[in-house]
Amino acid sequence: MRADPGSRTWRLASSPHVADTVSCSRIMLIVLAALLPVTVWAVVNMGMLAVGLLIACVVSAVGSEALWNWIARKPHTIMDGSALLTGLLLALTLPPRTPLWIAVVGGIVSICLGKMIFGGLGWNLFNPALVGKAFVAISWTGVLSEQVVPGGWYRGIDVSAPTGHDAITGATRLAIAAADKAAAGAYGFDTTQHYVPLLFRNLEGSLGEISAALLILGGFVLIATRIIDWRIPAGYIGTAAVLSWTFGADPVFHVLAGGLLLGAFFMATDYVTSPMTKIGRFLFGCGCGLINIVARLYGPGPEATTWAILFMNGLVPLIDRLTAPRVFGWRKRNG
Amino acid sequence: MVKSGDAVLRGQLIGEAQGPISANVHSPVNGEVAGVYSIRLLSGALAEVVEIAPHAEQDWDSFVRIDAAEDVSETLRMGGIVGLGGAAFPSSVKLHSSHGKPIHTVIVNGCECEPYLTCDDRVMREWPERVVAGARILGAATGAKRVVIALENDKPEACEALLRHSRPDVEIVVLQARYPQGAEKQLIYSIIGEEVPHGRLPASVGVLVHNVGTAAAITDAVQLRKPLVERVVTVTGHVGEPANFLALIGTPISHLLAEAGGFTAEVSRIIAGGPMTGTAVANLDLPVVKGTSGLVALTNADLPPAVHADQPCIRCSRCVTACPMRLQPYAIGIHANRSDWEGIQRFVPLSCIECGCCETVCPTRRPLIQLIRRAKQVLMSKGVEA
Ligand code: SF4
Ligand code: SF4
Fold first, then answer.
1. pLDDT per residue over B194-214, tens digit each?
2. Distances (CA, A) of B345 to A69, A282, B315, B328, B366
3. Which of A97, B71, B235, B305 is the most exposed place for a label (fewest CB within 10 A)?
């Protein structure tokens, strides 16, 4: 009776014996791919300024993670791609003429204070790239919002000239829009004229603000491949549009301008720092949109997106708790 | 009951149920007892087995009948009928567990319990009349008003076969093919729209569920007084001719694999049951038992990368979305990892049905099922109510 597939030893493991094909590094690759168009377009238009920033942020982010693990005698984690992504996202939030040393500080802060100090990937409460961005924004306010270049490292390359617009930065333009709105109920300039440059070629903001259209494209790729949940950007952008319209501002302008789209598609959707339930994610997105617009119109202005998402990151444990599902067969929510 | 050298007949009682949740075992062949000894079965449980050398000539149509009994439950007990979906729970006990609570619906489950397996489909196609008869026997025994045979929409032939043999008092319900549709609680919800409360049996919502194979075996036990000596086993994966076999209980796994044409690739793991919840087989000489619904031969390429508890949870929420019980597997995993048995309780790990859905979708390959099982063991040993 002991027929063919005879005696040998078998490798054992507990069930399940099959798995889906989506791996962590694959997810990272798709996100990087979704960011590629806007990154490439930034490099095409901003040249070495963009390249320098990208390299500074990515190398400092990945490098500090490697160093941290080495010092802490932890296994290496840089191959999971998340530090690379953090560096890239940070670079995209910085204006092209940010001094490289500030970018490097941003990268180090992102990884060390934004992630590793909490215990590494998965344990951080706040989006690492935004922690770095917030640190830089607080420490060198003028540098980011006024595009001043200390030491003039890149003087001579006037990135705002080719647009043919006035020389104010995107961020400053938002500030004017907000101030005018609050004061007189009207804009100091016609926002509708800015739709096309904001969509396709805007040299007055950060690297990632180069093209709203490419950000939207990347966002749709992530939604279509089911990497991110549409509820976060939908709640975010929807709330932002409705709210700015309610306040009498131009909703299209406010959605397209500044860091909102980058934030809605790529920052607020970070798995680690967003809620675990579907309804929670929608509420989280709405909260981001609400704070973003209020902060933009009545608050400090330029870093509205950063603060909005960081604030909502802090609420995630509460949102998770309040929206915990009712487990099958139970009467009340569990969790 | 028997000893080495004894002659046994097909259908003869060779092992008697001991304890409340156990079942009689009958010889599947005419032969001679070659030995009685203890081994670890597929489940890992240590059990006494009777090795029988079958006679070269067998008369498959004759068997020793079980004693006539008035009561269906007693017939099932004597016949050693157990759930053939995989859990192998004694059917007579299941029938009893409903006593006191009126059963309004009997569901005969033709929703394959696992992907890869087709044994339920085959049973419905080959023996529709026995499945229908079994459903009606169960309906009559429980006094249920509603008798339902449920199957998935990817089995049109089985559905047709059942419809051809159906009776007006039996409903055929076609459900969406989606794992784990065949899981008892999910099935009951699909049919009656009610959730079985946590820690309770289906009887608490007035339902009794039996697998289609069990229903056919019940028909045989009641109408022919035939004990359970064989079952349908799916043999699939990297074998020459994947097929369903009517296998005698006790057939060595190696024999079934050889019958299916042997391996066609470098097989690295054999799974008893299905790939989601089945057990990896340590030894191919082990026998098919009453709960063995399938044998799946997988290669390294089919197998997922090994799980590792050091892998971080990236909070992607895929496990939360995948869980049919609406649990939060990631949270159970994190608390179990740090042995926080107090904090873990609000995530009610005891409600987990161990379907495996969460772990299969985890991008960082966290060992969610092992962590959840550990949590369940600890909580049960602490006497936490399910
Ligand atoms: S095994 Fe995972 S998916 Fe299945 S019920 Fe348990 S926690 Fe949920
Ligand atoms: S699927 Fe894995 S990584 Fe994602 S939330 Fe669940 S446990 Fe965490």
1. 999 998 889 889 999 999 999
2. 33, 27, 20, 12, 20
3. B305
Interchain proximity B320–A325, CB inside 8 Å: yes
pLDDT reported for residue B352:
96
Distance from CA of B339 to the nearest CA of A (A): 17
Above 90 in pLDDT, residue A173?
no
- What are the residue ranges spanned by the domains of chain B? 7-54, 72-224, 230-302, 318-381
Q: Does domain B230-302 have CATH number 2.40.290.10?
A: no
Interface of A with B in 266-325 (CB under 8 A): 271-274, 276-278, 281, 324-325
Interface test with A, best of B55, B277, B313, B328 (most A CBs within 10 A): B328
For a mutational test of ligand 2's pocket, the pick from B318, B326, B347, i.e. the residue with the most ligand atoms closer than 8 A to its C-beta, is: B318
User: E strands of chain B, at which residues?
Assistant: 7-8, 13-15, 25-26, 31-40, 46-54, 105-109, 146-152, 170-175, 207-211, 230-237, 243-248, 267-272, 279-280, 294-299
Q: Which atom of ligand 1 is nearest to the CA of B354?
A: 1
- Best probe residue, ligand 1, of B353, B360, B368 (max atoms within 8 Å of C-beta): B353
- Confidence grade of residue A111 (pLDDT, cut at 50, 70, 90): very high
Q: Closest residue of A to B330, CA-based?
A: A276
Q: Are A99 and A56 in contact (CB under 8 A)?
A: no
Pick the residue with more confidence: A165 or A119? Answer: A119
Percentage above 90 pLDDT, chain A: 64
- Structure tokens that stand for A82 in this block: 């998340």
Give the C-alpha distances (Å, rounded to integers) separating A257 from A148, A206, A285, B204, B335.
Answer: 21, 11, 18, 58, 42
Interface mutation target, options A227, A328, A331, chain B, most CBs of B under 10 Å = A328
